Amino acid sequence: MVLLIGLILCAGFAYMVYNALLSPNTTFEKSQVTVFIPSGSTIDDVAEILDPYIDNSDSFYQVARRKHYDQNIKPGKYVLMKGMNNNDLINTIRSENTPVSVSFNNQETLANLAGRISQQIEADSLSLLEAFQEDTFLKNNGFTNETALAMYLPNSYEFYWNTKAESFRDRMNEEYSRFWTEARENKAKALGLSKTDVVSLAAIVQKETAKVDERPRVAGVYLNRIKRGMKLQADPTVIFAIKHSSGNYDTIIKRVLYRDLKIDSPYNTYKYTGVPPGPIAMPDISSIDAVLNSENHNYLYFVVNVERFGYHMFASTLAQHNRNKAQYVRWLDQQNINR
Predict the structure, then answer these.
(1) Which of 240, 295, 304, 312 is in the most buried spot, having the most CB atoms within 10 Å?
(2) Can you tell me the distance from the alpha carbon of 166 to that of 138, in angstroms, rounded to the nearest whole number?
(3) Which domain holds residue 125?
(4) Mean pLDDT lowest for which of 15-24, 101-110, 329-338?
(5) 214 and 294 belong to one structural domain
(6) Kind and range of the H or E run holding 339
(7) 87 with 49, same domain?
(8) Which of 119, 127, 111, 107 is CA-nearest to residue 167?
């Protein structure tokens, strides 16, 4: 009898262990769900995060403590599969941190970039901005507050969700260094431009035309102007100068007026010769390569082509440019475009 009772107790205990460890403990109907465990989380925090997705929190607690998960909680993004038992759940959130795809496009400021990235990884926008602007980092890597934006190349990158701000910044610096191959550096030197100058010029090209196939020709215009000591006279730099001076980068400016050309800003290429002190936005890689592989021509001017929207009319002489410009101005007046 005692033996029988012992066997029954052992069987009951084994069932309890099986039920806690190996019995399915998910409630969601989808094939999988994603959860994010923040840095510094406790076992209670994790249980609260998982609560909407598991059937029995008590059994999860028991198995978590038996497996000492509560002593080694790791932050990150984790994918839970339908039908997982507690053992599967804990093994997953202990060792299967899943990368996230982080992407950003043509941000105009480091603050905008920080806001964009903070929506995709755990680091908040303030810590990211502080990392981007850290004096020691900028100095050690050859950047200034004005050129720092040049380091960030718009693209998609894989990161762990719990990546720290400094780690994100350092990875972007590695990507920047990897992008600037010896071949690209030699092309920049042949143009008499630094790497950040190339990016700054590429940002203007990017703003001037959305047509990738036209960017080498537009870049050629600006390079011709630089060779001749002419001002770049790029409207996008005036728009940026207005925003930079006011501190309001959300300002929408549809048309540059003659009075705007007089704004006293180092970014105003109607007032100052040469490339601006830093990029007015993040250019695409296609724009950077358009500068490095610009079209060889004699054009010095261009204006919107009203018969082929998105593209421009190019001219080698001011007389021809003025004729092209008159056509564009007439079209603007007909549209009644103003601020």
Answers:
(1) 240
(2) 12
(3) 99-179
(4) 15-24
(5) yes
(6) none
(7) yes
(8) 127
